[in-house]
Amino acid sequence: MRPLFIAFEGLDGSGQSTQAGLLAASLNPSRKSIITKEPTNNLIGGLIRAQLTKEWSTTQECLQLLFAADRAHHLERVVEPALAKGYNVITDRYMFSSIAYGAVSADREWLKQINSKFRMPDHTFFLDVPPETCISRMEKSRLEFELFEQLDYLKKVRENYIQLAKETENFHVINGSRHKEEVHLDILKAIEG
Ligand code: TYD
């Protein structure tokens, strides 16, 4: 069996990193599994984070190109070398974040185009948690919050993920509102086919 490339997707606060950890610990133990994430922690990821925290700003188009550039670098430096060594690679966010989040304000076809050359994951898991639940989880870690604006935005992001599930192979929508072990078992079942 060849190594697997798996992506976790979801709204912020939907449990991607928890599920990535559980999955890494339970995949075939004879093969190493690495967990990685986007945006990355390298230079391009730093520019993206500076934009997200409003320390620096650029246009929506430039931001989307940075996400794609960060991904190209992530694939070249982390994902491809690890797969070549025979490791499973589990990424917390991948190109579907660009389309689901980006298409709220940028052109969807353009976003698909700038992401079209990237390797498709063997499996993608969208952890579906109601936007209201994600907001209440995030509220606990934030001082200021524009509740309605955020809710409306996250609802659109969720719809975009549901649309992606309809048009993408091996894209699984997993009910992420349950106990983490139940969610994990569903993910394993989907991988085992
Ligand atoms: P997040 O996973 O929350 O990063 P961190 O935990 O390091 O802060 O991602 C930051 C935000 O970026 C998140 O709201 C989703 C968004 N995002 C996009 O809009 N497009 C993308 O291509 C990616 C990877 C993330």
Brief summary of the model shown:
This protein has helices at residues 16-26, 43-52, 60-84, 95-102, 108-114, 131-139, 147-167, 180-192, and strands at residues 5-10, 33-37, 88-92, 123-128, 171-175. By secondary structure, the chain is α/β, with parallel strands linked by helices.
What does this molecule look like?
The protein is α/β, with parallel strands linked by helices and about 190 residues long. The radius of gyration is 16 Å and the shape is globular. A 5-stranded parallel sheet has the order 2-3-1-4-5, with helices on both faces. It contains 8 helices and 5 strands; from the N terminus they run βαβααβααβααβα. The mean pLDDT is about 95. The relative contact order is 0.20. The chain has one domain: P-loop containing nucleotide triphosphate hydrolases (Rossmann fold, 3-Layer(aba) Sandwich). The site of thymidine-5'-diphosphate has 10 residues, from helix 4.
Features:
193 residues; alpha/beta; Rossmann fold; 8 helices; 5 strands; binds thymidine-5'-diphosphate
Secondary-structure topology with pairs:
Blueprint: E1 5-10, H1 16-26, E2 33-37, H2 43-52, H3 60-84, E3 88-92, H4 95-102, H5 108-114, E4 123-128, H6 131-139, H7 147-167, E5 171-175, H8 180-192
Parallel strand pairs: 1-3, 1-4, 2-3, 4-5
Thymidine-5'-diphosphate is lined by residues 12, 38-39, 52, 67, 93, 97-98, 101-102.
> What's the helix count?
8
Low-pLDDT parts are none
> What portion of residues is helical?
40-55%
CATH superfamily placement = P-loop containing nucleotide triphosphate hydrolases
- Indicate the overall shape: globular
**In CATH, what is the class?**
Alpha Beta
Quick one: biggest sheet?
5 strands, parallel
Question: N-to-C SSE series?
Answer: EHEHHEHHEHHEH
Using the CA coordinates, give the radius of gyration: 16 Å
- Percentage of residues in DSSP E strands: 5-15%
Strands of the biggest beta sheet: in what spatial order?
2-3-1-4-5
Separation of the first and last Cα atoms = 14 Å
Mean pLDDT: 94
* Bound small molecules, deduplicated: thymidine-5'-diphosphate
The tally of domains stands at 1
* Helix-strand makeup class: alpha/beta
**What's the total count of β strands?**
5
CATH topology: Rossmann fold
